[in-house]
Amino acid sequence: MPRYPITIDQETVQIGSSAELAVALDVLQGQYDREVLTQLQPHLSRIILQPNQLFTVMKSLSPDDQVFLIQALQGNLAGIIQDASHLRDLLATLAEEKVETALLQALGPDGLHSLILTGEELAEVLEWVYGQTDELTLELLGLEYVQNLCREAAELSMILRSLDTGLQSWLIDQLGWEFCLGLIRDGRDLAYLLRALPSAISERLLKHYEPAQLASLIGNSRDWKYLYQRLEPAEADFITHILGLKNTRRNSHAA
Amino acid sequence: MPHEQIPTWTRDPAAHGSLTPLQGSKYRQIDGHLHVVNFIQETPGGENLLDQMDRANIGKAVIFGLPVSKMWTSYDREGPDYYLASDSPCYYYAYTDVIVAEMVRALPAERQERLYPLICGFNPTDGYALRHIERLYAQYPDVWSGIGEVLLRHDDLTAFTFGENARANHRALWPVYQFAADHDLPVLLHQNITSVTKNDHPVYLWELEEAVAEFPRTRIVFAHCGMSRRVNVPFYYQMVDRLLAQYPNLYVDYSWIIYDVVICPDGKPSPDWLALTEKYSDRICLGSDLVARFERMGPELQRYDVFLDQLSETARTNLCWNTAEALYGGNKGKVKARPALTVPEWKSPVPHAL
Question: Do A6 and B22 touch (CB under 8 A)?
Answer without folding.
Answer: no
